[in-house]
């Protein structure tokens, strides 16, 4: 594992979930803009120090899923695959929980350490929603922290959680797995074995590749056919 004295945290979430607001809340003024390799999509990077640690946040483009059909989705997912950040900070809009969990499941399938900031708790409460945080966290196998980023609420707890997660990655590495049913699972297992045995795909998560392959993902298909 790299230990360069700084941790890289990818801020991922659907559009309008409050990613940038959380990003600003955590990093304040220490921000700069870069680009992702080969594309013009803006890469917003922010830095803050916490205790003895330097934390580098990357504000990923907002996407509804992680297929490879749009540039933003490709950028977000390639960042996760290529850079293997120390942690994914998934921003979820508590007032649209069901819709936002779609991306959460896809992020979980990438097999990286992850935590969730359940943002917009104020909006969710105003709508009369009561979210059982413990149950949500238990079902997903991920730590869930409520935030109201617009008002700075949850900032200190979130910094502490990020610090803890970066320093104890194994405990934040989830083993979440969608069960696609017997027929699909049989095919997936076969594919996973083939992928795991193929050194072209070293460093890739076999399960993730197998799922994407079955879904007809163009990028993964190209990788597989070797073109
Ligand atoms: N009420 C409320 N509003 C929030 C909260 N967090 C963010 N917002 C507002 O929600 C809107 C969207 O926030 P952004 O931070 O821009 O969301 P984003 O995820 O970065 O959006 P994209 O970059 O377009 O994907 C802004 O108007 C924020 O001020 C919150 O916890 N509560
Ligand atoms: Mg934003």
From TrEMBL:
Under PANTHER family, the record lists: FE(2+) TRANSPORTER FEOB (PTHR43185:SF1), FERROUS IRON TRANSPORT PROTEIN B (PTHR43185)
Q: Where in the cell is it found?
A: Cell inner membrane
Q: What is its main location?
A: membrane
According to the record, the signal peptide region is none
Keyword terms, alphabetized? Cell inner membrane, Cell membrane, GTP-binding, Ion transport, Iron, Iron transport, Membrane, Nucleotide-binding, Transmembrane, Transmembrane helix, Transport
Q: Which Pfam families match?
A: FeoB_Cyto (PF17910), FeoB_N (PF02421)
Report domain FeoB-type G positions: 6-168
This chain's protein is named: Fe(2+) transporter FeoB
Q: Which GO terms describe its cellular component?
A: plasma membrane
């Amino acid at each position: 594992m790299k230990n360069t004295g700084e941790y890289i945290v990818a801020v991922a979430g659907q559009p309008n979930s409050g990613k940038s607001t959380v990003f600003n809340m955590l990093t304040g003024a220490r921000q700069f803009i870069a680009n992702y390799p080969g594309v013009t999509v803006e890469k917003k990077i922010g830095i803050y120090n916490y205790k003895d640690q330097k934390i580098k946040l990357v504000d990923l483009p907002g996407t509804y899923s992680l297929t490879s059909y749009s540039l933003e989705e490709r950028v977000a997912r390639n960042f996760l695959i290529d850079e293997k950040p120390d942690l994914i900070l998934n921003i979820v809009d508590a007032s649209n929980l069901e819709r936002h969990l779609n991306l959460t499941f896809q992020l979980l399938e990438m097999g990286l350490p992850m935590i969730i900031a359940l943002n917009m708790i104020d909006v969710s409460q105003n709508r009369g929603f009561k979210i059982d945080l413990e149950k949500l966290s238990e079902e997903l196998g991920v730590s869930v922290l409520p935030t109201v980023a617009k008002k700075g609420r949850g900032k200190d707890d979130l910094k502490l959680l990020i610090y803890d997660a970066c320093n104890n990655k194994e405990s934040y590495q989830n083993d979440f797995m969608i069960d696609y049913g017997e027929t699909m699972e049989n095919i997936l297992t076969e594919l996973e074995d083939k992928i795991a045995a193929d050194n072209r795909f070293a460093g890739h998560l076999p399960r993730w590749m197998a799922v994407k392959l079955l879904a007809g993902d163009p990028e993964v298909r190209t990788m597989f056919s070797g073109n």
